Amino acid sequence: MNTKDLFAGAASSADPDEERARQLQDQLRQYDYAYYNLDSPLVTDGEYDLLFGELKELEEKHPHLVLPDSPTQRVGGAPLNEFAKVSHSVPMLSILSDTSYQKEAAQIFDESVRKELGLGESKPVEYCAELKFDGLAINLRYEHGVLVQAATRGDGQIGEEVTENVKTIRGVPLRLVGVAPKLLEIRGEVYINAADFDEYNAKQREQGLVPLINPRNGAAGSIRQLDPGVSKSRPLSFFAYGVGAVDGWRIPGNHSDLLGQIAAMSVPVCELRKVVVGASGLVAFYEEYLGKRDSLPFGIDGLVYKVNDRSLQEKLGFRLTTPRWAFAHKFPPEEKETTVVGIAVQVGRTGKLTPVAKLAPVFVGGVTVTNATLHNDLEARRKDVRVGDVVIVRRAGDVIPEVVSVVLAKRPVGLMAGEAFDLYKLLNGKCPTCKNPISRATGQVDWRCTGGLNCPDQRKQAITHFAQRTAMDVDGLGTEIVDALVDQGKIKSPANLYELEAADLMGMRLAGGNSLQTLSVEKLLLAIAKSKNPPLNKFIFGLGIQHVGESTAKSLASFFGSLENLKKTSRWTVFLIPDIGIEVAIAIYEFFSTPDSYAVVDELIRSGVKPSGLKPIAADVMTFEKILLAVKAVDLAMSPKKQGALYGVGDVPIRAIASKLKTPGDLLHPKIPLSSVEEGARLKLSQLLSSGDWLRTINELESLGVSWGFTPKDNERRMSAKLRKILLSKSDFSDEQLNLMSDAEGWAWVYANQSPSQRRIKSPEICFTGFGVTERQELESQATSVGLHVVTSVTKGLMLLVAGSNAGPAKLEKAKATGITVVDRSGFERFIDTGKIPQ
Ligand code: IVH
C-alpha cells in the first residue's frame, strides 16, 4: 500500500462533490503529515491553501460532508467559559525522578528493577531509553481511529478537556492511519520547538505583543487557553510516549514496539530513542544526551528509562503514583560563566526589592540570559558578588536565572579590596524607582519599597497582574502597553484603565519603538470594556492580595458570594473558610482593613467594574465543628505563648462538643457536658466566646445565610464498618456522633483510649517530607486538626508518609522497606477528605 492510500478516508461515493471533498481531505491530511511530522513538505504553502479553500467551500455548501477528522476541523471552535473535567479511566501517572544529577542514578534504578524482579547479576534488563520532553502531558482519546477528546493530566485522576485546542496542533492526527480500534488512548507531551519559539517571539515583539516566557510555559499556557484561537496561533508540537486505556488493539509485548506502532499510525514519536541493555546501556545513553542536549531542536529536562518488556512491567507494578518500571533521570541545570556588568535592584509587585546581577549576555539552559537574580540582600552578601566579577550562572527549567557563585580565582585585582554587598547602602535607603523609604520587617530578609501603588514599578505590576488572563482578562494588555501607560502618566491605578479613551491610546509609543495604531486601540478599548463584569473570583485574584492565588480567590468568592460581603468581613470569619490557612487569612483581613487597598477596590467599583456575584456557600460549608476548630486555630495563632483558650483541648472533644450544639448560644450557656474540657480551659473558652470578635463573626455568618440548622447530611462522613463496630462497643459515641466522624478521627480516639499497657503510640502518626516551609505548615495543621500526630522521622509505627516533590530518597526507601504507605499531597488530601488510607 502506498502512503497515499494510508490517508484514504471513507469509501468513494456517487456524489461528485462528496467524492471531491473526501479526496481533498485525504490529500490535505497527507500534506499535513509530510509537513508537520516528516518535516518534508510535499506542496508549496500556496498550493496547500488553494486546496484547503476548495475543501472549505465544499463543506460549507454541504455541511454533511464535514467529518470530525477533516483537516478543516483544526480551526479551534468557539471560546469556552471553563474547561470541562475529564476523569482518566487509566490514571496518568508521573515518574519517579532523581535530582542528584549523578550518572549513578541510572545504575541505582537498574539495581532496583533487578532486585524487584529477583534477577541475578548475570541477567541484564532491556530498557527503552527516551528523552524527557519539557512541556505538558496530554491524553489523546481515539475512538474507532478518530480523535474524539484530548485532556490534560490534571492531578493524574481528573484533567481538563482541551480537545479543540489540541486539534489545532497540526502534527496530531485527527484520524489514525491504518488502524481503527474501538478505543486507543495515546499519551504524550505537547511542546514547542526552539526555532518555532524564537520565531514566534520575534514576531510578537515586532508587533509590540507579549512574548512567551519560555518554551515549556508557552506549551502549557497555550493548551490551557479558553479560546482555541489563541492555541492555534501558537507553534505547538507533540510527541507520543505511551498509551492509556485501550480496547480492541493488541498492545505489543515491548514498549519500543508499541512506540513504533504508534508512529506507524502517523502519530509523532521522537526518533531519538534507543533500546539499551543493562545499567551500562543506560549510562551510555545518559552521557550521549548530556553532551547533545544543547543541540537538540527542543528542550528536554532529562531522560526517561522504561523497562522494555511489558510483562516485566506488569510484574514490577506501581507505587502509589509512579510505576516501578520507569525512571526519570534529570539533567543538572546547565551552568555557564559570564561577567557581572552591574548590579541593579528590582521592585516586585508587592514592593519586594530584589538585587539582580546584570550580565554580559550568555546562552544557558536554552535562552540568552542577561539578568540573574541574587535573591535578597543576605544572599547577595553571602555570594559576595561584585561588579566586574566572573560568575557562574544557571537556569533550571522554569526557574529565573540565578548566580550560583563567584569564580574567585578570576576576580580582577582591582576588585579584591571592594566592599561586601549592602542593599540599604546601595539604595541609600530609598526605593530606586519612587524614592520612597525602604523598610524591612523584623525577622524578615526582604527589604520592601513602602511606596505601594505610588511606586511606578509596583503600579505597573499591579495593573499587569490585574489585567492578566486569569484575573480580569483584558485581552492584549500586556507589560509593554501597561509600562507605556504608566510611564506616560496615563494611568495611576487599575481603575484608571476604565477611563481610557481612544485619544489617550492612539499613537502611544511603546518601548520597542512601535506605536499603537487604530486597530489595536479599538481592540484594546473593547477588551477593557468587556472585562467590566468579571466573575468575582477573578476580580479578587486581580487585586493582588498577598498570598491570594487563583484557588484562594475562588474559595473567597464562593464563601462570600459578593464583594460587599467580603469587604466588610470581620476579623475571624476569614479563618472559617475552607482551604484558607492562617497566614493567608491574616493577609486577607489586613488587605481589607488597610485604607489604601480599600480605596483601590472602591475606585474600581466607581469606575463601573461590577464583579458578578453568586449565592454565598458559607451556609453549606459551615458546621460547628469547623467553627470551633477554626476558633482554636485563631486562638493559637493569636496568643503569644500559644496558650489560648482551647490550648490542650483535643480535636476529638471539640468534635464531641460541636456535635451537641444547636445554636452558637449553647456554647455560652452550656447545656452540653463539657466534661472533656478541663476547668480552666472552659473558662477561657467562654471568655473567648463572649468576645466582640466572636459575636461579630456569628452575626456575619448569619447574614451570609448560616441558619445553624445543620442537617446531619451536610456533615456526614463515611466510616468503615469495622471501626464503627469498635467505637460502638468501646466508646459512648452515639450513632449520630459517629456519623460526624471520619475514620482518621475514629482511629485517633481508639489509639488515644488504649489501656496504658497496650498503648504504643498516642495517635496515628504521620510524617511529611519534601515540602517547603509554608506548605508543610499548612499540611501539618490539616493533619493535627483531624487528630493525627505529626512526627519527623520514619519509624515502624508510622501510619502514612506524605512525600512532596523534594522528598529525599532516604525516607522513601525506609518507608518502602517497612511497608509504610507513601502518598503525595493529593493522596493526603483525599485521605483527609475521606478518612480512608489510600492503598
Ligand atoms: S512516560 C507512567 N515518557 O514527564 C509513565 N513521560 O513525571 C508516564 N514526560 O507528566 C509518563 N517525556 O508528561 C514519559 N518520554 C517520556 C516523557 C514523559 C516527558 C513527562 C510526562 C509526565 C512527566 C513524568
Helix-residue proportion: 25-40%
Main β-sheet, in a few words? Answer: 5 strands, mixed
| Low-confidence sequence ranges | 710-717, 756-761
How would you classify the helix and strand content by structural class?
Answer: alpha+beta
Q: Going across the major beta sheet, what is the strand order?
A: 2-11-10-3-9
Q: Can you walk through the features of this model?
A:
- With about 850 residues, the chain is an alpha+beta fold.
- It is built from 34 helices and 22 strands.
- A 5-stranded mixed sheet has the order 2-11-10-3-9. It has a 5-stranded antiparallel sheet with strand order 14-13-12-15-16, covered by helices on one side. Strands 5-4-7-8 form a 4-stranded antiparallel sheet.
- A hairpin with an 8-residue loop joins strand 17 and strand 18 (about 450).
- The longest helix has 22 residues, at about 15-35.
- Mean pLDDT is about 85; it is low at about 710-715 and about 755-760.
- The structure holds 2-(butylsulfanyl)adenosine.
